[in-house]
Amino acid sequence: MMFKSYFSYLLLFVILYILPVPVTAEESEESIVDKRMSLYKKTEAITEIPWYFIAAVDQYERQINKDLKEDQVISIRIPTEIWYGAGNNSMDTNSIVLFNGKGKDGNGDYKADPSNGEDILLTMASIIKEFGQSEEDFKIALWNYYKRDLTVQTIKNTALVFKKFNHINLTDRDFPVAINYNYSFRNTWGDRRGFGGNRIHEGTDIFADYGTPVHSTTYGVVELKGWNLYGGWRIGIRDIFNIYHYYAHLSGYKEGIKVGQIVQPGDVIGSVGSTGYGPPGTSGKFPPHLHYGMYKDNGYSEWSFDPYPYLRKWERMAKSKK
After folding, report:
1. What is the DSSP string of 234-253?
2. Residue 262 domain-assigned?
3. Range of the domain at 261
4. How confident is the model at residue 304 (pLDDT cuts 50, 70, 90)?
5. More confident call, 134 vs 193
6. Is residue 8 assigned to a domain?
């Protein structure tokens, strides 16, 4: 009997203190987010470059570098010739300086390793710091590094979102039409459209009554607002995942909403209408509905993709909150 008791205690000890504890996907993601924030804040302390500038660059590159490992903490990739300097391949910091490279030692091991997160962040922050520390200086540094207007705008806006909400784990979403109103939708992405020539439908139509509130589905910044021949009164929001969210055929906008404004899930941005298919003010050529489209940017080009699966998921999320 004593042996059985001893064996039971031994087994309990092994389970509690030796065997690894399973980690859920949510816990793993939280751990990675915490590591990132820690490294961003450390780099800020060293360079005085605001953490949200550094985080926004890392966030952007996480979306365009698709061969990253799931548990990769830092995603920035600095070109070899910029890191080492032309004609050099040594991680030795003295050698890098000699060849006019940018690589820095962020973790104190006397090497500038382009695969080490601390070294990468210190190097990127140092590249940014060459141009100054203000938001305008940040834009100039981004243009000098990426040489693409949309990339500069996307990273700048992501930095503003991170700054406002003081965090990077912004995963909440909302359905684009107020769910306490009557609405209906099905998958219409890819359907043929004839107005203006043969083309495909780049979104999902959500039918609802005139004036039904339209919500931002995501955290982001208003990138575009105004009239479009096809979309009527429309508004475009770029989120922190390099995705452009397009809301069209609105009957009007929420008072005060403007380009450059930061929004979050659930913010009212306008109302359902039937505008479009003609000059400014044209309305009533089709039943009232919201055209909702999503466009992905990979750092080189932008394309439409099917929003329907996301809308179904966000609809469930919105209803669960009620």
Report:
1. EEEEEETTSEEEEEEEEEEE
2. yes
3. 183-321
4. confident
5. 134
6. no
